[in-house]
Write a structure and sequence with these properties.
about 0% strand, mainly alpha, globular
């Protein structure tokens, strides 16, 4: 597993080096071709500004992140994760037909998926690795991914998340008028990614999608999401933004009340649970400072050199030629980076919000893209690497199809909500 995770970190290493060296190269071109020697000072100053921005963002993130990790810890101790797991158990027993009924691995998988849906990353990863170990015990070929493994990993990589805590925290830190207004668009886009990932695996593995539980679940959830999109087309952008913000507030407040009431019913000390979780959020926010500064400095140099503007202009021209809103071009780098590096995509999202504004169409679209799926190649490396699987079969193709579906959906619905 360490070698595979190292491989993923090397991807970000090459991206980081590429951004910095290309920025310097662009500076040389401008100096030689146009006599703009001041470009080097501009690029250098951008490193100081970006480093300061990265530190301030991380520091400002501690409050909001501590708040939500505290709330999530209440839900975790109250059994909310277990409740969600029980609700989706009938569906899971159909899409994992090779796993014996009642096998303990179902508990690990359900806990992992439910934890991801609630944004409990720290709880989700250990349960996910435990599930992969249990699935490996059932696997007849220890070097080749089983059908159940692939289904589990694709569902994990598609990143279905109900509460995008970190994204809302970043939006609050960058001055968004309503940090939660991207809640519904993210929910729609992440569902589209998960649905396509699920269907692609079902087709590849010839799982019976006509089963009443499988078909009923897919139709029901798709109808709900489709109703949201249909309703979005009937409202103005301003009304839709207001409705999205209000709906997000109602849902999130409802979740908080659910966690607290369920914790009270089990005689859990809610305050102590919150404090315990908030401490973890504080440590998380402090821990990301070096990583955030590293990627923001590289992206800042890339933009200061003019390379980012050149890239966005080229993409905007292509969009306009295809009849697509050219304003969306600024989000393409984030979309391309997301499957490769979560940290890189996060840096591009923050850079877009800083440059264009947290409430700009590009800024919001980047947030939607960031919340749509997980970091595909990292998930593949960690999960398959943990059990020494060398042949991942159709896992990569299905994961990338899910990524594509999420990106297309995000670009389609962002103008509906915020155009």
């Amino acid at each position: 597993m360490q070698k595979k995770v190292y491989f993923c970190s090397m991807i970000l290493n090459y991206i980081w080096i590429f951004l910095i060296l290309l920025a310097v190269l662009m500076g040389l071109v401008q100096a030689v071709a146009y006599g703009n020697v001041d470009i080097f000072s501009t690029i250098l100053n951008s490193t100081f500004d970006s480093a300061k921005t990265g530190f301030e963002l991380s520091l400002g993130l501690t409050g909001v992140l501590s708040l939500w990790t505290g709330i999530m810890r209440i839900g975790e101790q109250a059994g909310a994760v277990h409740t969600l797991g029980k609700a989706i158990n009938p569906f899971f027993s159909r899409i994992f037909p090779e796993v014996p009924k009642g096998h303990p691995v179902f508990g690990s998988m359900l806990m992992n998926i439910a934890a991801n849906m609630l944004g409990l990353d720290n709880a989700a990863t250990p349960m996910g690795l435990k599930a992969m170990g249990e699935l490996q015990e059932l696997n007849t070929d220890k070097t080749k991914a089983s059908n159940a493994m692939i289904m589990f990993v694709v569902l994990g990589a598609s990143g279905l998340t109900l509460i995008p805590t970190t994204i809302m925290a970043y939006r609050a830190q960058l001055g968004a008028e309503n940090p939660a207004d991207v809640f519904l668009p993210i929910l729609i886009a992440t569902y589209a990614a998960t649905l396509v990932g699920l269907i692609s695996v079902c087709i590849a593995q010839k799982i019976k999608m006509k089963d009443p539980v499988v078909l009923g679940t897919i139709i029901g959830l798709t109808a709900l999401v489709g109703l949201m999109v249909w309703g979005a087309t009937l409202l103005s952008a301003k009304a839709l933004s207001t409705l999205s913000a209000a709906g997000a507030a109602i849902i999130l407040l409802g979740v908080i009340c659910w966690f607290i009431l369920q914790a009270m019913s089990k005689h859990i000390n809610v305050y102590d649970a919150f404090i315990d979780g908030a401490k973890g959020g504080f440590q998380t926010a402090i821990g990301i400072i070096p990583y955030l500064i590293a990627i923001l400095v590289a992206v800042g140099m890339f933009r200061a050199s003019g390379a980012m503007n050149l890239l966005e202009s080229g993409i905007a021209w292509c969009f306009e030629a295809c009849g697509i809103n050219p304003d969306l071009a600024g989000a393409v780098p984030t979309a391309l980076m997301k499957p490769l590096s979560g940290g890189g995509a996060r840096g591009l999202m923050l850079e877009a919000m800083t440059t264009h504004g947290a409430d700009s169409l590009v800024g919001r679209l980047c947030c939607i893209l960031q919340g749509t799926t997980d970091t595909t190649f990292y998930v593949l490396a960690v999960y398959f690497g943990s059990v020494n699987i060398k042949d991942t079969r159709h896992a990569v193709a299905c994961c990338l199809l899910a990524d594509l579906a999420g990106v297309v959906t995000a670009f389609a619905i962002a103008p509906l909500f915020f155009g």
